[in-house]
Design a protein that fits this description.
The structure is a single chain. This protein is of the alpha+beta class. It has two helices and two strands; from the N terminus they run αββα. The chain has a domain at 2-32. The termini are far apart.
Length: 50
């Protein structure tokens, strides 16, 4: 969570193209009381259309 807190004030969690959670990092931490997050980044800038 430390990296997220350093980079962002607000976050949105997206699963299968659906926004499942959005808000301030501190509010989300207070609501869910856990410090375990998985962050996945997909860089599609290098892909070409077939």
């Amino acid at each position: 969570m430390g990296s997220v807190e350093e980079l962002c004030d607000n976050i949105a969690l997206i699963n299968n193209s659906h926004k499942i959670l959005e808000g301030k990092v501190r509010d989300i931490k207070n609501t869910y009381k856990t410090n375990t997050f998985s962050l996945e980044y997909n860089d599609f800038t290098g892909l070409s259309a077939a």
